[in-house]
Amino acid sequence: MLTIINLEKFYGKYKAVNGLDMHLKKGDIFGFIGPNGAGKSTTMKIIAGLLPADGGEIYVDGIDALKDNKKLKEKIGYMPDFFGSYENLKVIEYMEFYASIYGIVGKESKDLIMDLLELVNLEEKKHAYVDGLSRGMKQRLCLARSLVHNPELLILDEPASGMDPRSRFEMKGILKNLKDMDKTVIISSHILSEMNEICTSVGIIEEGNLIYSGGINNLLSRMSSNNPLKIIVRDKVKESKVILSELPYITNIKENSKELTVFFNGGEIEISNTIKALVLKDIPIVSFTQVSENLEDVFIKITEKESK
Amino acid sequence: MKINPILKNESKVGVRTFRFNLMVMLYVGILSIVAMWAYFIINSDKYGMGIDLSKFTILSFALACGQAVLLMFIVPVLTATSITGERERQTLDILLSTNLSPMKIVLGKLMSTVTKVALLIISTMPIYAINFLVGGTSFKELIILTLFFISTTIYVGSIGIFMSTVFKSSKSSTVASILTVLFIVIGTIIIGFVVISRDYYDALSNNTISTFTINLPFWLYINPTIEFIYILIKQNGILYFAPDLINYMNLNKIFVISLINQGIVTLLLILLSAWRLNPVRKSIIKVRR
């Protein structure tokens, strides 16, 4: 559905996007993660035909997006990170306006608008003025607007930014519906726990470089491979500590009452050997886990450099 | 017929605002004051036989001038905020991400201004009705004058829209548009008057005045005042406001050339505006990195 090859974008001499490659299949929900100014919005705007690229190629459903802007716009729906609207416009008029841009008018337009408002749970607000809607409602309306021409690819820039937890929950539900509708979606967000639940794959961008692109589970296990082990024992804490310290791959052990935090070098073999060593010495293990990381932790780790 | 979605939306929503209604009220109000003032002049000149009805041409002249002056300020303000307004409301990216071409956006904005101006002109018809009563203006003359205002609105509007694509904020583009329009309407006339007067007095001093004809500098043809004066002379025959120099001009020729010139400038500005609005436009100068 979407193929990006060696995409480049400069702002003056600053390279905002540096040789970005990406490939999305139909139905993929791709989460774009990165700190502010990493190049997420720039990349999304280039895909949406709102910024010219300085190098590379983009294909959306076989269309050369950098050359055929008109055909591209039939295929994509874009939702910016800020909701803008006109004064004195009602929800239904807002939708009618954008439907008319795509030549959808009359009964067809009315039926479509009602379906879309239902999808984003705004059917009861159809006669309300857009200005009077809450931020969450405006964001949902903007999403409905981006779907008006039934695009194949949806580009959502921070769709949940500034929303309260309730609105975020609703937005998550809508995105799940889009997933069921087999839409291909690129979504950037800082609410990573939600990305974790919705996205089929993620891309981490930093200083214009896509430093990771792939499945979320793969990323989490890769980032967690060297995470410490947390072992809780019923008793024999000192004995456990001695046994563990004799293992060559253990680098450090921290003790907190009956809980031991064990730092090590290695992978699954070393983890199983650790359990084996403790069990063979009859250590009463209550709990044995490797500290896992969620997407948020990964994001923090990656962006640590920037905050320093 | 498929109506431009921008035109349709702005025609519906734009006229709902308090601002627009206030503008109509002020517009009609100011023109009413102009009409009352002109009527006062006509009335103050009456003799025992009553009001000299032929002087009602003053009223139509005053109304036309009042309308022209008001539109000279209103049209740049309406159009100069068209694109910058979209940018400030953060709706421009949404519009550009749809399959609406930059040209359609520019034309939609321009046409919506023309619609608003047409509404303003129509709302002043009751004032013109005073003239119909006594024969100061014929309906045909009113139509011609309205068509002139509409064509000038398109011309001045294209300047406003172009400025709106050049500047980022509405304030800057409005100021730039008004200054540009003032320069075109008043500035070029002053410069042109100085240049032509110099030639005229040269001809007088060289005793070649009998063969003297005025050739307007090419840049003066961008001034819509020329057509306006032409229409006023044709309709009212009022020449007392015009300098003697006007007798040395071929007004018919000047009128046609002005119309053509302003048409070309309008077209160029519309094309340039659409080009500037295109987010993925090709750069004229290729920057090497």
Secondary structure topology:
The complex is a heterodimer of chains A (308) and B (289).
Chain A: E1 2-11, E2 14-24, E3 29-33, H1 40-47, E4 55-60, E5 63-64, H2 69-75, E6 76-79, H3 91-101, H4 106-119, H5 135-146, E7 153-157, H6 165-180, E8 184-188, H7 192-198, E9 201-206, E10 209-214, H8 216-224, E11 229-233, H9 237-246, E12 250-256, E13 259-264, H10 268-280, E14 285-290, H11 295-307
Chain B: H1 5-13, H2 18-44, H3 57-80, H4 82-89, H5 92-97, H6 102-123, H7 125-134, H8 139-166, H9 170-205, H10 225-236, H11 251-277
Helix pairs in contact in B: 1-6, 2-3, 3-6, 3-8, 3-9, 6-8, 6-11, 8-9, 8-10, 8-11
Describe what you observe in this structure.
- The complex is a heterodimer of chains A (308) and B (289).
- Chain A has 308 residues and is an alpha/beta fold.
- Chain A is built from eleven helices and 14 strands.
- Chain A has a six-stranded mixed beta sheet with strand order 6-7-8-3-9-10, with helices on both faces. Chain A has a four-stranded antiparallel beta sheet with strand order 2-1-4-5, with helices on one face.
- The longest helix of chain A has 16 residues, at 165-180.
- The two termini of chain A are 38 Å apart.
- In chain A, 38% of the residues are buried.
- Chain B has one domain.
- Chain B has eleven helices and no strands.
- The interface between A and B is medium-sized, with 36 and 25 residues.
